């Protein structure tokens, strides 16, 4: 369901997402590079999507992780379901969005910081899209708290995991999430869809890959599980953690 309640596990052990820098960045991208939301239907007593199902699944992931350890004590179900989004939106302002296009095969949001964060100073370009296309534009990857070159071995490992998620019994819908740490100024950007545009040539850092299951059922398109290779958010069908996480210093 879209119920934004769950636990995070690493190698079978429950962890606190707030202790991992990588999950704070993952949660930030899930919220800021997103035009959808979840809402609580009082009549049905159930959470529903507002917008596109895959985007809503990323919102659910961010709320389940609660990577900023936002208190939920005393909140009703509706209020408790949006605390992470509200927290992220106190840290970042979305200046503009570049919608998904056939050439880019990704969505990007240009965001400026409202307060200091672990992502560093200055504006960021948060990106999500098809894993092959996004990884092709990445020069580095986040591993724990480190930024490491995205060599062919690491790239192939990520793509192998993506293929595992995208095939088999559940056939998960996969996305890659990334950040441009030092994007160009908006007035210097070529925002077209051509191969030579700024967005196609911008250098990204891979943050994570995510996968969600949207059952192909006529009367329901509700994601029943949401996860990423860096983390598994518990649900009716939890996904095993695949890549190492290192606690924040």
From TrEMBL:
<dbReference type="GO" id="GO:0000166">
    <property type="term" value="F:nucleotide binding"/>
</dbReference>
<feature type="region of interest" description="Disordered">
    <location>
        <begin position="221"/>
        <end position="249"/>
    </location>
</feature>
<dbReference type="Pfam" id="PF13246">
    <property type="entry name" value="Cation_ATPase"/>
</dbReference>
<feature type="compositionally biased region" description="Low complexity">
    <location>
        <begin position="221"/>
        <end position="241"/>
    </location>
</feature>
<protein>
    <submittedName>
        <fullName>Sarco\/endoplasmic reticulum calcium ATPase</fullName>
    </submittedName>
</protein>
<dbReference type="GO" id="GO:0005388">
    <property type="term" value="F:P-type calcium transporter activity"/>
</dbReference>
<dbReference type="InterPro" id="IPR023299">
    <property type="entry name" value="ATPase_P-typ_cyto_dom_N"/>
</dbReference>
